[in-house]
Design goal:
alpha+beta; D-Maltodextrin-Binding Protein, domain 2; 2 domains; 10 helices; 5-stranded mixed β-sheet; Fructose-1,6-Bisphosphatase, Chain A, domain 1; 7-stranded mixed β-sheet; 35% helix
């Protein structure tokens, strides 16, 4: 590759099966060596925004960012645990960019709850071109490439049809970040049969793609939280938008809300109940 233009043109071909396999193998290795040895053994520190960071987050980010830079020096890097000053400006151009959440589900991790993951997305030309979400507890690796579908440990993920409709669906809802009026309505006029909140955006979206849940609702999610998981969901046949009916993915640091469903009919019902009259499709 001699130029950025060549890189963008050949992006999909470049990240074929062999190179995606190399990425997933490296993520698995880092999870085994840097993340899991600290599970149940690490303390947490609070960040300015009230979220937590641990030595595990920092170790995974250091290892993966160094390896990615060595393999693909032309691709810039955005990690959740970078200083905010360093994060600013990285999303302002179409320069190819790795977007990493080294530990999505940090509160679960420090609370000894085995529901967390490493999430990596390759962003270029205003979209995600490669998505990898790895759950080290279940050794499950979700992968997606636009137009090539989504998979779980090599098994293709197809559309999950909720035959009971909205009334019989299972929803993953993060109440903490929703408008109070919406939270109250969800409790008093519950439209689905059951609700859960697991604590990892990337993994939540992948579980919907895998047919383990049907609906999703989150009020404030950062790009490193949703970029990879959202592509897995969409390539499996799921659909999503914000609470304003806009496309979720946006190349910016400002948090986005997420409304999602496993398939199109359920998505229309969910958006209708939420009052989203013209959701993006």
């Amino acid at each position: 590759m001699n130029s950025k233009q060549d890189f963008n043109r050949d992006l999909i071909d470049l990240f074929g099966e062999e190179l995606v396999s190399a990425l997933t193998a490296r993520i698995r290795k880092v999870a085994l060596e840097e993340l899991m040895p600290l599970f149940t053994k690490v303390r947490r520190d609070e960040k300015q925004d009230g979220s937590f960071v641990t030595e595990a987050d920092l170790r995974v980010q250091r290892k993966l960012s160094a390896w990615l830079a060595q393999q693909w020096p032309d691709i810039r890097f955005l990690g959740e645990e970078m200083e905010s000053e360093a994060q600013r400006g990285l999303l302002d151009s179409d320069t190819p960019l790795w977007c990493l959440d080294p530990l999505d589900g940090t509160t679960n991790f420090v609370s000894e709850i085995p529901y967390f993951c490493i999430s990596l997305a390759l962003i270029a030309s205003g979209r995600v071109h490669v998505a990898i979400v790895y759950d080290p507890n279940r050794d499950e690796c979700f992968v997606a490439i636009p137009g090539k579908g989504a998979s779980l440990n090599g098994r293709r993920l197809g559309p999950h049809v909720c035959r009971t409709g909205l009334a019989g669906a299972t929803a993953l809802v993060d109440f903490k970040r929703l408008p109070q009026t919406l939270s109250t309505r969800l409790v008093t006029e519950t439209p689905y049969t059951s609700q859960r909140s697991f604590g990892s955006v990337a993994l939540d979206l992948c579980w919907i793609a895998a047919g383990r849940c049907d609906l999703y609702l989150h009020g404030r999610s950062n790009i490193w939280d949703y970029a990879a998981g959202l592509l897995v969901l969409e390539e499996s046949g799921g659909q999503s938008c914000t609470l304003d009916g806009e496309q979720v993915f946006s190349r910016e640091l400002k948090p986005r809300s997420i409304v999602a469903a496993a398939e199109s009919q359920l998505y229309r019902e969910w958006c209708s109940w939420l009052g989203i009259t013209r959701p993006v499709r």
